[in-house]
Every structure is written in structure tokens, then in C-alpha cells.
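Subject: complex prediction, re-run

Hi both,

The earlier run crashed halfway through, so I resubmitted it with identical inputs.
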Amino acid sequence: MVDAPVMGGTVAQMIDLINHLGVGRSRRVIHANFTRGQGTFSDLDDPTDVFRPLIIPPPSAETLEIPFLSSPIGRHLLLFLTIQASGTTPSLLAELYKLDTTGSPHTLIDAGCQWDTVNNRLTPTIEQRGVVTYPVQVIGTGAQVQAASGGVDDPRPLVVPLANRGDNLMLRLTAAEVNVEAVDIFELYEESWA
Amino acid sequence: MANSFTAPTSGSGLIPSPDAVVSGQIIQADTISRLGNMLNYAHAQLGCSPVVSQGWPDGVFSVIGTPAAPNARWRIPIPSNAHSTLLIHVKADNSSNAGSITLEELTNNNTSTINLTSTSRWYEGTLSVGAQAGTYLEITATADATAGTTTISYLSLQWQPLSSPLAAGVVDSKHSSSDITPMGANRSAADYPLSSARGVALLNSLKELAKRPRVFFAWSGLQNAAPITAPKSMLPSDFQTKSALSRKWGGSRAREHEYEAHIYAATHGNGDDREIIWRDQRATIPAAQIAPAWQTLTTDEPERVNERPPAADLELLRDGPTLPRESALRAPASPIWSMVVWGP
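This time it finished cleanly. Structure:
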């Protein structure tokens, strides 16, 4: 090439790597888990195989909250939830708030999405041969960005508005006949329809 | 010359394009400055996801009086020597306005105590950990009730990201043999030389940043808690329900990324050796080890992909301990008192 200074591949590889680190791995990834009391735990000394966690029914209703300091670049939140459901009409609502740590109300920033038996996103109790179990299932929002209606939607990634990126956020889960065991949250950065 | 940086928020045009510097392209005025900006940003933010995020929804983490020893403990990786502050978020209460929770790091014994009221709400605190020579530190949580009952509903710990401008000077290596050199914002602009020294500093910084760990899984049992139902160690159901999902990165094996599992373990004094299985690694906890001690297991990124949800199009790894087959013939409680997994 004439009159075209060449920088070659080394700098391009450095840029590839720093983009992977800065845009990819610097995004927040949150694994949250919930630990409950176990009635059979005191049975420590006897060899036994009668520990049957899947027959413990989930609580009828509870509200769980997960806080985290978001990154300045996360635009959406992709959720995977490990749960057990019971009854006939279990439901789980996920909302996103700006966290308040002074005792004042939290600020709702995304009305969120819901999994239930109406939108066929939850499997309730399984009964086989007279035995009722509450199988472990993994549900999620998917990573395909969709427009938020302003109300509660079917499962979709939650939106982190520009003004709230880098803030302390809080994911609130309102569960009915659902046992939330663990939640994996991934921040999404990819460009979208907006 | 301030080492300032701007977050590469979407649409800000700050992400450097590798296509701008391939053979045949004319040097752009701002490509190298964007590279320096991204390096400063990655140094500030990488590794600052929560290192502990654990909840106890039904009052199982509650104490009456002052526990004789900590209630929970974790080992957590340290991003760099420049990251020295842990951000604490805790949701808790004390029924008599007379309780607290104390976080203590066990290298320098620095502590942070948050006093609680009778209304269950979120609190924020910080813990300065001081100089840390190691790549990780051990931290404990102890709830206290001078009167009434203290109940901890949730605890989250994450490293405070660095703010702009970064402090001047080289940050010594932590996870590799290479130091991090923050980039002066103006020195990479147009008409400044791209010296070989600057190229070496960039390469060394990238080597160190590429080895910086992130936590994927953290769980601790409860010791000295008031409810007899509080799980002191991992139970069979936890192996199935508390595994974590993490991204599988292309090229991770070629880059010799290491995943580490740090496990605080002991048997229950009933005469049985107990086995711990994590990915392709195994460790045996001998029956005589009834006082817990840390085990460290390391391995490469697995070649298999555990899950690839069609709606997400992400290659994901499911991480956590595997329940050994022997468990069906042993006491239900596993030997795992605490476990933290980290990797790239």
C-alpha cells in the first residue's frame, strides 16, 4: 500500500480482547440463592436415604429481593430462575426497582413480567400413582429484547433505563405457590430495536 | 495526565473497532485512545459482580444473643490491589432495635458493622479490606442480638468499582505475572507517539485483566443460628437446585483460563469418609476431619456446553458440586460448609 500506514494485526487483537473484557466480562453476572430451614437436617448420624426434598411443598406466598450494583453499560437483565411450583395456579412476578437503603420506598423502574399457568410458563404439581411431587424447573426471560408495555408482560428481559445504569438495583420476586431456589442474572448490552 | 475514562455506554461510539486497524486501513485519529479508554474502564469494572448473594427467606438465619463464632463464611477473589472496598447490602431486622451484623475479613481483621432496627429493610455499608497480598480473602458474617432476635433475610457483597480518573501508577500483578498500567487519557490521542513501551504496557495490562476472576457460585451454611432447622452444610436438594449458570467463553482453554472451587469442608464425626465432586475434580474428606478446613480444586473450562436455551442463544455452563452416589448411604448432610466457585 502506498500512503497508507499499516498497523497490522497485533493492535486488532488487542482491541478484540479489550472489547471482550470491557463489554463482555465486565458486565454484572449475579448468582443468588435462597436457603430455607430443613426439618430433616438434625438426622445427621444415621445412614439414611429417606431425605426427599421434592415432596416438601413450596410456601403459599413470599416476596424475595435481590440487590446488586449494576454496571454502567447493562441495558437489560436476562433471568434464569430455578424453582419448584405447587398447587394448581402457581405464579411468579419479577419486577425491577432502584434500591433504597434509607428506609424509604424503592422506585419501580420496570413493572416486569410474570410466569404462571395462564401463559403456560409454569408447571404445577405433578401427581403420579398417588405421590405428589414438586419437580425442579428452570424458567427464564429469554434474551430476545421486547418492548415493555408498561404493565406486567409475559416473560421478557427486564429493562434498565439509561438513567439507572450504574445504580443500585433490586430484583423483586413475588411468588405464589412457588419455591425460588436460585436466580442467575445476566446483564445484556447488545444493540436492539431502540 | 489523568487516567480518566468514560463508560462505553451504548451509542457513545467509544468501543474501538478491530476492523479499523487491519492491514490496509489508514490510521484513525481516535482508535488508540478508545483502546486506552476501554482498558481503563475494564480495569475499573471487571470482577465487580457480586461475590456473595445469598438469601434466607423464612427466618432461618436468626440469632438470639451473641454467637460464639461466625454464622457464615466465604472465600472471595480480589480483583486487583486497587480494589479495596467491599460494598455490603443487607436486609435484616432486630425485634428490639438492638442487633447488628458484622462482616470481617480475616487477612487484616478489618470489620464493618451495620446496626439494625425492628423494621426489616435494606441497609448499605462498606468494608475496607486493607492491603491484601493474596489473590483471595476469607470473610465471615456474624449476626448479634443484644436483645430480642436478629434476623438476616439477605446479604450481598460486591467489590466497589474504581471511579474515574484511576489513581496514577502501575498496579502490581495479582492473577498473572503482568502489571496493569492505567492509560493517560490524552497520551493516546492524535499526534502522540505509540511507543513500544506503551505497547508493552498494553499487552501486560491485557494479560492481567484476562486472568481476573469472577464469582459464579457462592453458598455458605449457617453455624450458631437459633433455629435447629438451619442447614449447617449443603443438603442433597441443594446440589440439584443451587447450581449456577455462567457463560462459556470461546477460546478459554487456549488462554489457559482456570476455574477454582474453594470448599470449606468437614465430616460429621460418624465414621464415614465423604467425597466432594466438582466438574472433573474429586476430593476426599477423611472421617477424622471433623473440624472444617479449606479445600481448593482447579480445572479448565469444560468442552461441553450444559445448556443452550434457544431463546437466549448463549452457551452456558451449569456450575456447582455434584452429589456423590455414596450420599444415598450416608447422612443427608454433605461435608460442604461453604463453597465458592470463580473463573474467567
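Chain B has three domains: 18-45+176-210, 47-166, 233-344.

- K.
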